[in-house]
């Protein structure tokens, strides 16, 4: 990644600033919103992902469970969290740790019983915390009763899965057949496995123990809708839908084109997955599920709106289709996912990213997102290295400052609030290492276990996670220094910074205000959050290890001469309440600052010329024109790319 010196002319960013002064929420209620004055509950809260095996063990078997979650749910309340989604808790042989489901309406015994789930729901209601379940519709376990019946070609189940006779092997004299095509499993190897009892190949886009359901069969579609209705009846607030862009494949099973960049025919990178991912039917299925949830919400108005969160690692245009369809002639758009997960902070940024990289990535989502939609920001999950591992432990507070002050919804992975990091020696000897033999070596290299270690509650045995002699994954030894209990006692800590930011983001300006991001330099990211009639906030994030001096008045001329510190990193030289000068702000290395400018009513600002106010109003009016925004920003995006990579000294001052 190229790095350039700070640009000497802040005026270069002025056209971009004009077009990006966009309201963070739409003027009206929009699709799927409950009101136009702050939105529905899911638009106002912070979501928290719990990995059940690693959160809290209540019975001493070394595995986290539902009672443990219930007992520790008060931690989420203390942190200001309003909703949590649980990774799969359903009956499973645990080949892929719950993403291989045997029965969608039965609790995995390691995690408890249905009574434990109901007790968890009761505690969540008491604490006003919404529960979201992980829904895995693409595939089941090969131990699922549906699959066994399909293998036996039992009437009604024969076509529940994707079966194929395979191709003739011209080199074999005994009638041996080859896999139908060149499709690969995400986890390496062919996506097809021959089943001798049925005499056909079945499709599995993940492990061989995870056969793909056939969503072209209406019976399967209805079966999965019944699963949703079952859990809605238990009171859940919605579903996070796993691997949603894998639901459908082309019906003629043609070969996928080779990429030419990976020569291993068993590697997932060997082909372009244009016939097994991101098909139009995937979106239609999400729209159907959204219709089901909306119908349920209308039939149960006493409860909060039910929501859909979708997981799809796809390009930006494909991802945006999950929000809603394009309006068809004579009909309106069909609504879909409330939250198509935004993984750009994970996939497009790392510890080497510059401030312009951050601004470009943030604007990328906001540019493509439908105007009536709500943004979301995911900083980590169970499949990705932790924040402190990806960006550096010294930047944990700065990254949370970013996450919790951006417009829209924030999603936090368990343990990030205290700064947990990956434990590279944490490789399970049990279920999670059960992969195809041919992928064994790759599993060790690419294992996701290091980011799934038990939560570090205190300095007692196993970090307070379990009383067992050993735990399903080893606890990170750094728990003696890094644990929640100590951070709650400390005057300043990652946890206290996180909690302060969560509370701060409830301010109207963060909930409904506009955002204007500007890279002050290669190292310093800044943005202003504004809302008419409310306080203005400026966020300053220093990505450098050393301090930087910033003149905020040069890029945000409407700011007051002095600002109040509303939040700072746990190692910052600033404290909440400190007063700083706008034109000469010294920012510590790796600091994340939130600065507040107190709103002064219009009548007290008589010295502000009407011409200035008028021009500001015109600016806002133009910025809210969606068509203008789309065309200008996309054009600027291209120019900005050339700007970042061009060598002319008069723009960038040369390279480092």
Describe this structure in words.
- There is one protein chain.
- The protein is of the alpha/beta class.
- It is 29% helix and 15% strand.
- Helix 8 (280-299) links the parallel strand 12 and strand 13 (307-310).
- The protein is globular and about 85 Å long.
- The two termini are 12 Å apart.
Which short descriptors sum up this protein?
656 residues, disordered N terminus, 29% helix, 24 strands, 15% strand, alpha/beta, eight-stranded parallel sheet, disordered C terminus
Rg of Cα set: 26 Å
Beta-strand residue fraction: 5-15%
Number of strands: 24
Structural class call reads alpha/beta
Q: How are the strands of the largest sheet arranged?
A: 14-13-12-6-3-2-16-15
Biggest sheet features: 8 strands, parallel
The average pLDDT is 87
The portion of residues assigned to helices is 25-40%
Question: Which parts are unreliable, with pLDDT below 50 for 5 consecutive residues or more?
Answer: 1-37, 429-439, 605-656
Distance between the termini: 12 Å
Mass-distribution shape: globular
DSSP summary: helix tally? 20
């Amino acid at each position: 990644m190229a790095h350039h010196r700070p640009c000497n002319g802040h005026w270069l960013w002025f056209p971009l600033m004009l077009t990006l002064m966009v309201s963070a929420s739409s003027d009206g209620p929009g699709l799927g919103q409950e009101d136009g004055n702050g939105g529905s509950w899911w638009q106002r809260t912070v979501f928290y992902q719990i990995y059940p095996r690693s959160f809290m063990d209540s019975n001493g078997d070394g595995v986290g469970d539902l009672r443990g979650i219930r007992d520790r749910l008060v931690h989420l309340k203390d942190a200001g969290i309003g909703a949590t989604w649980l990774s799969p808790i359903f009956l499973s042989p645990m080949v892929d740790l719950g993403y291989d489901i045997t029965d969608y309406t039965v609790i995995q015994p390691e995690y408890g019983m249905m009574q434990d789930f109901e007790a968890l729901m009761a505690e969540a209601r008491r604490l006003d915390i919404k529960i979201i379940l992980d829904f895995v519709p693409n595939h089941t376990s090969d131990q699922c009763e549906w699959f066994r019946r399909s293998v036996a070609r039992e009437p009604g189940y024969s076509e529940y899965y994707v079966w194929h006779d395979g191709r003739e092997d011209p080199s074999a004299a005994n009638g041996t057949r080859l896999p139908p095509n060149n499709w690969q499993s995400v986890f390496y190897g062919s996506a097809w496995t021959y089943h001798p009892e049925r005499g056909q190949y079945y499709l599995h886009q993940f492990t061989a123990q995870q056969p793909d359901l056939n969503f072209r069969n209406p019976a399967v579609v209805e079966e999965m809708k019944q699963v949703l209705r079952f859990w809605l009846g238990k009171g859940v607030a919605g579903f996070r839908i796993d691997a949603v862009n894998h639901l459908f494949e082309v019906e003629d099973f043609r070969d996928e084109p080779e990429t030419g960049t990976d020569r291993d025919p068993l590697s997932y990178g060997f082909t372009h997955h244009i016939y097994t991912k991101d098909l139009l039917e995937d979106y239609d299925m999400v729209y159907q599920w959204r219709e089901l949830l909306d119908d349920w919400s209308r039939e149960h108005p006493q409860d909060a709106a039910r929501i859909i969160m979708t997981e799809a690692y796809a390009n930006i245009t494909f991802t945006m289709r999950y929000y809603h369809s394009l309006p068809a002639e004579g009909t309106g758009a069909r609504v879909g996912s409330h939250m198509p997960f935004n993984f750009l902070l994970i996939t497009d940024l790392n510890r080497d990213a510059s401030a312009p990289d951050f601004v470009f990535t943030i604007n990328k989502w906001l540019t493509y997102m439908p105007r009536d939609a709500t943004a979301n920001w995911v900083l980590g999950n169970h499949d990705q290295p932790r924040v402190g591992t990806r960006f550096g432990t010294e930047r944990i507070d700065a990254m949370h400052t970013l996450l919790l002050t951006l417009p829209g919804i924030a999603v936090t992975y368990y343990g990030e609030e205290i700064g947990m990091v990956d434990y590279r020696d944490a490789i399970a000897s049990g279920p999670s290492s059960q992969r195809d033999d041919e992928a064994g070596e790759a599993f060790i290299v690419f294992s996701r276990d290091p980011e799934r270690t038990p939560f570090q509650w205190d300095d007692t045995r196993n970090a307070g996670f379990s009383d067992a002699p050993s735990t399903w994954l080893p606890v990170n030894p750094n728990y003696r220094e890094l644990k929640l209990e100590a951070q709650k006692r400390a005057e300043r800590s990652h946890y206290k910074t996180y909690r302060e930011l969560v509370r701060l983001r409830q301010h109207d300006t963060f909930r409904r205000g506009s955002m204007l991001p500007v890279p002050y330099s290669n190292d310093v990211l800044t943005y202003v959050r504004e809302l008419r009639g409310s306080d203005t906030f400026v966020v300053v994030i220093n990505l450098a290890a050393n301090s930087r001096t910033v003149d905020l008045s040069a890029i945000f001329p409407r700011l007051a001469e002095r600002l109040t510190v509303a939040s700072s990193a746990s190692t910052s030289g600033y404290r909440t309440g400190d007063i700083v000068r706008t034109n000469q702000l010294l920012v510590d290395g790796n600091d994340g600052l939130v600065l507040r400018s107190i709103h002064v009513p219009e009548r007290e600002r008589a010295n502000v010329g009407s011409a200035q106010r008028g021009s500001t109003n015109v600016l806002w009016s133009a910025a809210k024109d969606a068509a203008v925004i789309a065309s200008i920003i996309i054009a600027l995006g291209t120019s900005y790319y050339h700007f970042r990579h061009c060598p002319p000294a008069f723009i960038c001052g040369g390279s480092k």
